[in-house]
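Lab meeting, item 3. Inverse folding demo.
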């Protein structure tokens, strides 16, 4: 199956007309994106957009052979001029299946918001799934018959749609995921590529031609990631974003609960509101058993609070106890955690604080904590495929 992406942007395109935002300012040249439209084997056009014929010509393709034009969304904007020779555009009722003269079978899938998704199967058996902007499939079977070869979806706007597809087996290890409907709410350039790669997806320029069934290297999702940064740098948001497309996630809160602390309760509440409702929460500092056992992805937030608890347990705040037994006991606990990270088979994203670049703590205990957290961060990072530093909400990849 040959798939030509005539456009990969939102309905208004990118840059948006008269929009002064930074993303639109950078979306020039090869980064400009027309409204999303897909041409399948020159016979099926998914979504009709202004300039479709010109976009096809720029990609070295023609719309002359198109036998069916299908829309994914209710069209309530200005009329779109139909290029000469194209059949009338329409939508297929949910659950209905069409067989085209070209041999393609098209089935309309219900969505959880206005719009229609389309499953396209070629005569040779290649399978494509195309989802509309801002939508996820509704009522997917728990055990999907066979993974799609390629999924084109609104990965940045609805990452949970990809999580649902993975949960049902519709997206498997060999499925290529292409981000479309890209708008100025998403970053552009290298930052977009980095975020999508963490989700096992990628973006391509307008006019790209893809061949389903052809071998291609998929983005490699790092299994262990350490996210570090200063206070309010956005490191927790970065960590959460990395797991939005996973079907199951256990959020490990090492802070526990702090009764009588309204400020802390507010912070915890904001974290919970950001997280998908399908995530489970475990409040514990006992990380080793979680890392040793098999299970869904872990988001550990954060290592600095784990270290605080570990130092409490070994009496590290008292100078005498520290010299007598605390130092040795803490190093043993840290080594046990690092060994568990090295051996784990789970996907792990851990958050920690970067405390070595600020004011030198005034107390010996404060300096001790700073030093031990620096050692822990370095040892933990050594076992991770990817290490990310977050500064002012911007992620800088230090490794991977």
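The presenter then showed the designed sequence:
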């Amino acid at each position: 199956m040959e798939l030509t992406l005539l456009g990969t942007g939102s309905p208004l395109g990118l840059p948006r007309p008269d929009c002064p935002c930074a993303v639109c300012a950078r979306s020039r040249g090869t980064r400009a994106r027309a409204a999303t439209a897909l041409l399948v084997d020159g016979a099926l056009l998914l979504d009709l957009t202004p300039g479709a014929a010109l976009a096809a010509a720029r990609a070295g393709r023609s719309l002359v052979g198109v036998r069916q034009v299908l829309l994914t969304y209710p069209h309530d904007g200005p009329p779109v001029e139909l290029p000469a020779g194209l059949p009338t555009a329409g939508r297929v009722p949910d659950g209905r299946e069409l067989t085209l003269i070209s041999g393609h079978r098209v089935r309309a899938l219900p969505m959880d918001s206005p719009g229609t998704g389309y499953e396209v199967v070629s005569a040779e058996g290649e399978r494509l799934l195309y989802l509309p902007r801002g939508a996820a499939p509704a009522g997917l079977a728990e055990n999907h018959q066979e993974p799609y070869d390629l999924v084109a979806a609104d990965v940045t706007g609805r990452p949970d749609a990809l999580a649902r597809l993975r949960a049902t087996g519709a997206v498997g290890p060999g499925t290529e995921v292409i981000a479309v409907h890209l708008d100025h709410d998403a970053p552009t350039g290298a930052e977009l590529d980095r975020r999508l790669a963490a989700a096992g997806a990628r973006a391509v320029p307008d006019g790209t031609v893809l061949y389903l069934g052809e071998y291609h290297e998929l983005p490699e999702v790092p299994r262990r990631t350490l996210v570090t940064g200063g206070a309010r740098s956005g490191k927790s948001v970065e960590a959460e974003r990395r797991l939005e497309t996973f079907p199951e996630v256990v959020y490990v809160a090492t802070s526990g609960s702090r009764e009588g602390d309204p400020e802390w309760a507010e912070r915890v509440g904001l974290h919970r509101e950001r997280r998908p409702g399908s995530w489970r929460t475990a409040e514990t500092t006992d990380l080793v058993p979680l890392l040793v056992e098999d299970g869904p992805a872990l988001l550990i937030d954060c290592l600095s609070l784990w270290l605080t608890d570990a130092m409490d347990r070994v009496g590290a705040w008292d100078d005498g106890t520290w010299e007598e037994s605390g130092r040795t006991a803490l190093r043993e606990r840290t080594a046990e955690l690092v060994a568990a990270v090295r051996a784990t088979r789970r996907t792990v994203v851990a958050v920690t604080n970067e405390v070595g670049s600020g004011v030198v703590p005034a107390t010996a205990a404060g300096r001790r904590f700073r030093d031990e957290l620096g050692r822990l961060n370095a040892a933990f990072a050594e076992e991770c495929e990817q290490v990310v530093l977050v500064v002012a909400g911007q992620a800088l990849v230090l490794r991977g």
